[in-house]
Amino acid sequence: MGMKPILLVEDNPDDELLTLRALKKNHIQNDVVVARDGPEALSWLFGDESLGREAIAPSIVLLDLKLPKIDGIEVLRRIRTDPRTRLVPVVILTSSREEQDLINGYQLGANSYIRKPVDFPEFIQAVRQLGLYWLILNEAPPG
Amino acid sequence: MPDMGGSATITAEELLASRELFEGILAIAADAVVSVDQAQRIILFNQGAERIFQFTAAEVLGQPLEILLPTFARAGHGRQVERFGQSPVPARQMGERSVIRGRRKDGEEFPAEASISRIVVGGRTVFTAILRDVTQERAAEEAINSLNTDLRRRATQLENANRELEAFSYSVSHDLRAPLRSISGFSQVLTEDYSDRLDEEGRDYLKRIGDASQRMAQLIDDLLDLSRLSRGEVRRAPVDLSALATAVIADLVAAHPDRRVAVSIAPGLKAEADPHLVRTVLVNLLGNAWKYTSRKDHAHVTFGATADEEGQPAFFVRDDGAGFDMAYADKLFGAFQRLHGMKDFPGTGVGLATVQRIVHKHGGRVWAEGVVDRGATFYFTLQ
Q1: In this predicted model, which residue has the larger pLDDT, B42 or B222?
Q2: CATH number of A132's domain
Q3: What is the pLDDT of residues B23-32, one digit of tens each?
Q4: ipTM rounded to 2 decimals
Q5: Which residues of B touch A21 (CB under 8 A)?
Q6: How does DSSP assign A48-75, residue by residue?
Q7: DSSP element (H, E) containing B141
Q8: A143 within domain boundaries
Q9: Cross-chain residue pair A118–B178, CB shorter than 8 Å
């Protein structure tokens, strides 16, 4: 399996840095493409001619819910309705239990979600399990 | 005089008796009875009419009906009576669709329900109206309507407040946690990558920052749980409290295998309550009993039931731990209220507030008795 990049959709720069660190600590060596709002995430997922950007076919999307312009729920909905991205694993990064309720309510077909814990080692642990499962054990669909 | 048959022959005596009966009925009637002739001049005005319209019969007999009507209704009313005079219907209710209004002697107008009938007597047509002053009924209706409107308005306000509260909770849980993650995360990064450049004191400070952000995260979670609790509904079902208490204690024993606590749980305690919420009550109360006896080598914790002053079952959790000063009993159940220092017994001070809210949602009461260093007993009812 080739090293397809991870798409991290996160608008909080601190969370971005901490997530990148957690990935690194877990020896996950895939490239990470960071999108900082909904439209940017979509441009990476589907390409954008005006930016001269081609779709990246990520191995996994780590998706924050609260995003500028287009929120995470809507990004997820578009991923699941487009044949090009329908099978891409999406893991939602939530800030709160309230958000978990929200996702359960929407049933939009996220593969998993992890709550961003305040406890950083706990977060690294969560990312480790995530990486093991989605990047190694779970063979990504051909893309 | 030819015999017309017994029923048609009326003696003067009988006529008098009949007239007395008729007048007697008219006199005691609470309603106004007003008759007018074809020219709409008043020819009968009973005591009920005197009471309602405040005219004496002598003042109105022979007067046009108009004096009993509000100015605006006079012309129209005359036409209506004429039309009714020509219709084949002998009697009908008036005012079913609109409020009929009368006018008292002093000019005050009032709402009325009336029925009107037409009788032809000896070739003369007589219209009789029986009329009831419904001022009080209307006022009562209006009061009820206004109360209902008020109630609807308040219900809407409450719904709005609830929605705002939910939005607020969501915002708190999301936005308050984000900076905390940064504080905790980067102090962890410092600990991991820069430990060798810090002395013992510096590392201690970092640890304090990390611990404090953990505590604040816990506070936020507890607070949100408390606020969710207020929003949720109570779903009652039969609950085996003794079994529930046994399970909660088993968890506590598993979490603290080193503790030596003699636990006594009264058998067969049952209640109609929300199983999930009651579990939270027992987790908090038994958890507190467990925590506040942690300084004792041989602690005792009891779960049982007694009766409150009204004979209702009151459940209790008793321990022989740190207890509390009854002077502060009213502070026990406030959110973030703590009677013990963090060092002695850690906690966020939300547990008993949660217990109180659950018990109140069940329509029950919660109260406590305690003596410093002798233990505490927490009682609750679920009705």
Answers
A1: B42
A2: 3.40.50.2300
A3: 888 888 889 9
A4: 0.74
A5: 189
A6: BGGGTB-----SEEEEESS-SSS-HHHH
A7: helix B135-175
A8: no
A9: no
